[in-house]
Amino acid sequence: MKKFSLRVETSLSNIDENRWNICASKDKNFNPFNSYQFLKALELSQSVNNSSGWNSAHLIIENNDKKIVAIVPSYLKTNSSGEYVFDYEWANAYHRAGGQYYPKLQISIPYTPVTGSRILIDEACDYNEIIDYISSEIILFCSRVEVSSAHITFLTKKESEKLEKLGWLIRKDQQFHWKNENYDSFSDFLNTLSSRKRKNIKKERAKFINSEIEIEHLKGDKINDEHWEYFYQFYIDTTSRKWGKDYLKKEFFNIIGDTMKNDILLIMAKKDDEYIAGALNFLGKNSIYGRNWGSLVDYKFLHFELCYYQAIEYAIKNKIKTVEAGAQGTHKISRGYSPVITYSAHWMKESNFHEAVKNYLNYEVLEVEKSKKILENYLPYKKK
User: Fold this and answer.
1) Within this chain, domains 4-174+341-376 and 181-320 share the same CATH topology
2) pLDDT over threshold 80, residue 222
3) What residue ranges do the domains of the chain occupy?
4) Domain 181-320 fold
5) Fold of 4-174+341-376
6) Distance between CA atoms of 266 and 278, rounded to whole angstroms?
7) Rounded to 5 degrees, what are φ and ψ at 245?
8) Could you read off the pLDDT of 349-362 as tens digits, one per residue?
9) Cα(70)–Cα(24) distance, integer angstroms
10) What DSSP string runs through 25-84?
11) pTM, entire model
12) Is residue 110 predicted with pLDDT exceeding 80?
């Protein structure tokens, strides 16, 4: 007799909120994006489950007592948008070979390139046993619903190592994170940098010292509807220029402002009593996650100030260990952010295509690791 059973839910409204958050929060890698509240805001605002291509298909694992013991946030995708692990070339190759790449099963947090556990497990369960079961069930599920493949993105290294042993293909990429080495002040951090890099940062920040621009850190009840109205304008301005589409709907920001206000740090810039720019950050157990930013004016270095330096200052003041400033961006290196490897896992239903992707990844992984070593030579810190 099987110890577990799996069901698929197309709406979080059909899933017990308390059990979801228990499974999510027991993990040491917990961050706010795995929470029921964040994903529910995406659904309620129609940021997913519409023309976005993200269609909820959450995998719920229960024991024989019908108790939820593990949850996998999952989506049937009809495109590759909003994932930050790019497989467009894979899709094109699959189509050229006469196959249909979409839909695919995407196990991830929509529009969120943040590493975290993708298989949320109640701590009372055996980790390896649950992973083994879920891996086999995902493959069976893909066969039943006729998808081309399954993709688990921004999962933890531990998950990737376990899934690799089960036959999944592991892909690597890199981001740039800032580490708090128990600094007492921003000046303390600057003193660890080489003279030239230290001077560059001071020059960039000098523009906002005793200037007409006022910068605010807003949390909890200090964030009101007016702030979200302004921030949505900033977000729209950025998305229209970079992607041409507002993935996150206006209602999404209103909802998280109500349900997740204690998990949010909004850094806003004001001039002449009018907000002109803002950066949205989420707060984890020991990390700040920079997510979205926008500005209605073109001030040199304002992006760096709001998204990087202000986040670093907040982390130092509040003894937070890490600042994750989003995907990509080698320009972050000169500002103290170091390259960090990220992981994704992939399974292709078609065996020949699976083998082709495997061969490609064998090469790509080596290139990513080589790139990380090269970039580490450009870190701005003093040589020890």
Assistant:
1) yes
2) yes
3) 4-174+341-376, 181-320
4) Aminopeptidase (3.40.630)
5) Aminopeptidase (3.40.630)
6) 7
7) -150, 135
8) 999 999 999 999 99
9) 9
10) HTSTT--GGGSHHHHHHHHHTTSSSSTTSEEE-EEEEEETTS-EEEEE-EEEESS-TT-S
11) 0.95
12) yes
